[in-house]
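Ticket #4471: structure output looks truncated?

Reporter: J.K.
Steps to reproduce: submitted the chain below (258 residues) through the standard prediction queue, then opened the result file.
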Amino acid sequence: MNLDFLDRYVGLDSPVHRLDARVKVLVVLMCLSLWVTTPPGRWIPLGFALLLLVGAAVLSRVPLRYLLARSLPAAGFVALMAVLAPFRPGGEVLVRLTPAVAVSEEGARLYAAVISKAFLSVAAVVLLSSTTSFATILEAMERLRLPRTLVMIVSFAYRYLFVIVEETLRMKRARDARLFGGRWLWHSTVIGRMIGTLFLHSYERAERVYQAMIARGYDPGIRPRQAQPLSSGDLAVLIAVPVGVLGSRLLPWLAGCR
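Returned output as attached by the reporter:
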């Protein structure tokens, strides 16, 4: 099995790759917190976040096309889940579909903010995983004293994601061997059965793996290697990036105070 869709660019050498993993995890967590809590309609912080991500991607030599290909599907999923947000009442009516249903200005602003935040958040996580090996990320999470249960769940999700993908590819080969067309609406029932079967197989395999791990004395803790002190460059990034993101968020408020 050759699945490098998560670790394809981890082996590159760049200033972003050489940053301490603890700094990158902390910076991503702080940026996500500031972006998610940005009120709808505040586009300056989100624009600064986009420039920050593009600059980090260029500096790390991770292709922007790869970053978009991994981030846009998640933003599309969020857009589908929040499809009712534009119909939230408030502000000027932009498009009236029926006498009782209309796209409002506030709803459109909220919808655009939700999609933008989802895209930026996923892109930041993708960039983190593309510049740091997953084992190093887990070690950094353990050193930062993040909840052990969270670290364990993330570790299992990463390890068994490849197993699930391999199972999906095997089911797809079996489906294609039966001359599956997939061009008509009634073919969607086949996709639904595949998803259900994949879920059941994954659940059963997880139960078997867990029982085997318990029988072998599984310890959920992660034993990180000896931590190296942060360099001056690491400290500068740890301070400058969150301060810049926070400053971009406070900029409209500071301009209003004048």
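Triage note (M.O.): checked the attachment and the full token line is present. The chain has two domains: 1-146+228-258, 147-224.
Status: closed, working as intended.
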